[in-house]
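Appendix B, Record 12. Input sequence as logged:
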Amino acid sequence: MSGYKRIPKEIKDEILSRIKQGGKVLQLAAEYGVSNKTIYNWLSSGVSAEISALEFARIKRERDDLLRLVGNLTLEINQRKKKRGY
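Logged structural output:
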């Protein structure tokens, strides 16, 4: 006999749905009698499958824009430091 109980798919889906709506993992784990490690495993195993190609492209563009902004701001800070003699 295994040392764990099987969580029905309906309960798993309900927990994951509530987390996506802002629920806290520790609170839901206690409420449903599921370990928080189990919930985190569910979350990590489902991440790549749930992101569409369009969403991935949007996130990548946003990341690239932010990296470009950080680079520009870093250059601007360094130029201002040089002008002030730092």
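Residues 53-84 form the longest helix (32 residues).
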